[in-house]
Amino acid sequence: MTLPAPLRTSAGTTLAAVLAASFGCATASTTKTGDSRSNSSDKAAMAGVNALLAPWAGPWGGVPPFGRFKPADLKPALETAMAENLAEIDRIAADPAAPTFDNTIAALDRTGHALDRAIRVYGVYTSTMNDDEVQAIEREMSPKLAELNDKITQNAKLFARVEAVYSTRDRLDLSPEQQRLLWVDYTNFVRSGAKLDAPAKAKLADLNQKLAGLYTRFSQNVLAEEGTQLVLLDDESQLAGLPAAVRDGAAAAAAAHGKPGKWAVINTRSSVDPFLTYSTRRDLREKVWRMFIMRGDNGGEHDNNAIITEILLLRAQRAKLLGYPTHAHWRVEDQMAKTPERAVALMEAVWKPAVARVHEEVADMQAIADREKAGIRIEPWDYRFYMEKVRKARYDLDQNDVKPYLQLEKLREGMFFVAGELFGLRFSPVTDGSVPVYHPDVRVWEVTGSQGKHVGLWFFDPYARPGKNSGAWMNEYRSQARLEGEVPVIVSNNANFVKGKPGEPILISWDDARTLFHEFGHALHGLNSNVTYPSLSGTSVARDYVEFPSQLLEHWLETPQVLNRFALHYQTGKPIPAELVQKIERSKTFNQGFATVEYLSAALVDMKLHLAGETRIDPRRFEKETLAELGMPSELVMRHRTPHFQHVFSGDGYSAGYYSYLWSDTLSADAWEAFLEKSGPYDKAVAKRLHDSVFSAGNTVDPADAYRAFRGRDPGIAALMRNRGFPVPASAAAPEAKPSPSGGR
Ligand SMILES: [Zn+2]
Q1: Separation of 291 CA from ligand 1 center, angstroms?
Q2: 625 noted as active-site residue
Q3: Among 519, 558, 598, 635, the one annotated catalytic
Q4: Residue-by-residue DSSP string for 582-629
Q5: Residue 644 neighbours by CB under 8 Å, 6+ apart
Q6: Residue pLDDT, tens place only, 335-383
Q7: Ligand 1 mean position, distance from CA 660 (Å)
Q8: Which end of the chain is more exposed for a tag (fewer CB within 10 A), N or C?
Q9: Does this model's pTM top 0.85?
């Protein structure tokens, strides 16, 4: 079960991250909130705006000012901070002194602090508290933030200074981290159009504006259909087959949607998947499945097809303007893969064995259906249902036997244990109210390292609620850095577990437990960061590398050290029986055909959409034809169909980049074997190398070099294929990791 959980992380997906990654942060200058940018003279409003802009108050270098502002304050705060940031940038550009690393490159990393603070809080609201008011603010602000990014990267005087420093880089006696920062900044400027002439720059800015607006509309359309659509179950006969926990969740969901006393399957994965797995009502499975896969594709005001056509066209035009054959070439160039061809080659190496496995899985399922005289042919809404039957028959493993041992809060303690064993981190709850939160469901832990040294804060926001994005992700509220004194990190993990009855433990599936560990891996990538420059901190790494630490961490869930101590039965408190663990172990590669093909089909469609260039694309037709060409088995669908593919269309984030999960998983499978080749998952020496070369390094080294430093060699594909139970090809060529232009220092 090594499917790269396709979950977005904050890294590289939000504009906040883009801005923070490119331009770090800024001097904490006095905020000017009373100027003409805000028409309101309301003192209270000013207090809220000020709270968003001012250096954070409170313990541990300050904490986010939740509770001290209203959502309406976000707009004036962002506008003030953007103006301030532009003024800072202009001062650097107009510096009469000759350009140096310190007065230009490091100076950029010392700007934008107020904007960084405001934008990260804004990011929390747009992802977890996205009600009508916040959505309106987002629609207005996202083009403005895109515009700011363009104003900075297109500032000719500023770029001339960056270029001047870059051209003398070999004579500057810079540290390796400084050389890396210089290369990253220069590359970002060039890739963002800094070398274009004035008319081309204007055209580029116009394209970015239009795209920003479309991304917001795309995302809000998906949110609307996920938040409002549901399948209402009126009577108990419609609950046939559902375990008690799923029934309870459905009851809670109905109540939350104003239908107390009934049951509802809401239009999110955490509600839909369990229903498809257990419901014996085939008619309702089909109904629920259709609702879920049609998100954004229903015609009417929330249909995303026309928006996608326009996004693809604008992206193709932008790529051409920037001198690239396609959007895919532009996006992949600064990734570890470097070219779309290398990414496609890896995907194609895995595709055929995965499809072959799907055909075997379907045959197994069909055999069971035939034995039961079900009189059906396996359809996509049957896959999860019959897959469970095969799992039971072949491995004697019932997911419902596992779930009572997977208590959300115990597993959280298990994650803390792993962080302690691998990295020496300790977590203690902050319960004295010294760290405000944005919602009562959110909790906070202080993280300390050796000798009790403060490392940072970890926020945990585990439950689904209206206005919260679906899925799970990690978010960084403040990045570690040392440029202007020690700045401790603040990260959060977010999930969408259905909140059960008050006081009862929340039992989660094995897949959800993996996801929990996955997101915690991102959090540890942020928490372990040990860099000087904020732009290079923690998870600010290439997209096809950022999932490596998180996917690697998933493996520790299955270690006996975690299972025996933390997978405890919610009623008896007894650890999960060894026999059950063995069954889980034996069934590890079970259903990898399904998991790999549903992921890879989405990744291949993403890449092909962005390799098509300036063709006018009908998303429905393109998806259908591409899948037919690939030989997509008819018994399953893409994990994310095009009209709701948030990774790809709610921002540039994972566009032409969904392959990243497979690329990263090639690394994580290979890295896991590094532990197994020594004394096992808790081998101290391997853990130390992992910390030093990967988890603490941020973007201070080229990822290929970082990996080689950890592993002593380049990654290969063999571990990935073994891990999924696919045949290992004779020439198990890896995504051979070549150093980028910045590498090899
Ligand atoms: Zn992730």
Answers
A1: 26
A2: no
A3: 519
A4: HHHHHTTTTTHHHHHHHHHHHHHHHHHHHHSTT----HHHHHHHHHHH
A5: 222, 225, 295, 296, 297, 304
A6: 999 999 999 999 999 999 999 999 999 999 999 999 999 999 999 999 9
A7: 10
A8: C
A9: yes
